[in-house]
Write a structure and sequence with these properties.
alpha+beta; 4-stranded antiparallel beta sheet; 4 strands
Length: about 110
């Protein structure tokens, strides 16, 4: 029963509203695409723990499912061994510009 409860809770969390955020590591030009229900706090944690400058390039209101879908779309550009980090190639730049477009909610975090 507790295992069933965990699976149900996990399934519900995938659809919890939150923010998909995109942080660019300037020195390496790799892009972190993550999800959080507390994006300001999560981004601050990344900035405190990842060496080098991280620039927020955009955010989207969404769910963990949206984040997973973006990860799947960008899988060919994934940094080996890094589930949520992607090489910031021209193709990735175009993709992120298209999906962010008018839906970019970055100003809500500043």
């Amino acid at each position: 029963e507790s295992n069933d409860r965990w699976h149900i809770q996990h399934a519900l969390e995938e659809f919890q509203d939150g923010t998909v955020y995109m942080l660019l590591h300037q020195a390496t030009q790799i892009l972190k695409i993550g999800f959080s229900s507390q994006p300001k706090k999560r981004i601050a944690t990344h900035r405190a723990t990842v060496p080098g400058e991280l620039t927020l390039i955009g955010t989207l209101n969404g769910t963990a499912v949206l984040e997973k879908n973006i990860h799947e779309e960008l899988a060919p550009y994934r940094v080996p061994g890094r589930k949520e980090w992607f090489f910031y190639t021209p193709e990735v730049q175009r993709y992120t510009a298209i999906i962010l477009g008018p839906r970019n909610t970055m100003e809500l975090l500043t």
